[in-house]
Amino acid sequence: MSDQKDRAWPAVLTWRAHDEPRMESVRVQLSGKRIKAYGRIVAGATASHPAFSASYDLVTDETGATKRLSLSVTLAERDRQLSIARDEENMWLVQDHTQTTRSDFGGALDVDALFSPLFNALPIRRIGLHERAETVTVPVVYVRLPDFSVDAANIGYSSVGVAAGTLKLRSPIADTTITVDSDGFVLDYPGLAERI
User: Which domain of life is it from (predicted)?
Assistant: First the structure.
């Protein structure tokens, strides 16, 4: 793991899972708090899920709030697509091959995807948790992969070592301490993945 303080953007960030056959690689472009990201998660079969590949295209607005997320998942037996977009009224439109749903998801401004360290950077950068000490709980649109279930969830972040980039995190799948770089992107998320 390395923290490149003077990283040139755009950049490619890559994570490797700690205990499972899974990797994520994403090309990230930054402009202020605005993020554009195109990434892929590749996962081998485990006891909890089949082998799959997921690609995503993410765009946030100038405040760092998610505007649009397009996801595509490939399994051995099928391909599926999911589109999530937030409108000017902060309502979310979620479309898959069977239905379209509109919801405020508890006031969420961010999306989080299971197995992806990249999506933790959205609220961290938007709120500035990598730059100052603060404790917050943020609502998110939570996407489980590879089945594409979409629910409202809350994720708690608490800055415990701003200089070291240390944040306590409580999510639907973890209660742990993560480390982030000076730009707010995850370096290590115990139990999930580390940046390589």
Answer: Bacteria
